[in-house]
Amino acid sequence: MSAFTPSRPDCLFCKIAAGAIKGQIVDQTDAVLAFRDIDPQAPTHVLLIPKAHVAESAADLGADHASMLGELFALAARVARREGL
Question: Which residues are registered as beta bridge partners of 36?
Fold first, then answer.
């Protein structure tokens, strides 16, 4: 069973990924979204999330999620470079 599920109406991150809740989008790929935190705890506070819902936690991810995880880390590096981090 995959840890990814379609967007869930009760999930804040699914709402952001779907555009139902507006966020300040920094960058994105087909599978990952990067956006600014609405209550930043640092001068640069960017969150990266998978666009598909993850059932419970990162512990549920397996080899079949390698592509999404690769995109997440590549996007994190790209955002960090652009933000001067």
Answer: 46
Contact call for residues 83 and 46 (beta carbons, < 8 A): yes
Residue with tokens 């990814």: 4
CB 32 within 8 A of CB 68: yes
Given a contact cutoff of 8 angstroms between Cβ atoms, the answer to whether 55 and 5 are in contact is yes
pTM equals 0.84
CB of 47 within 8 A of CB of 37? yes
Segment 3-41, tens digit of pLDDT: 445 577 788 999 899 888 898 999 999 999 999 999 999
Give the ranges where 35-83 is alpha helix by DSSP (H): 66-82
Residues 37-53 as b/e (b if ≥16 CB within 10 A, e otherwise) read eeeeeeeeebebbbbbb
Residue showing tokens 């590549």: 74
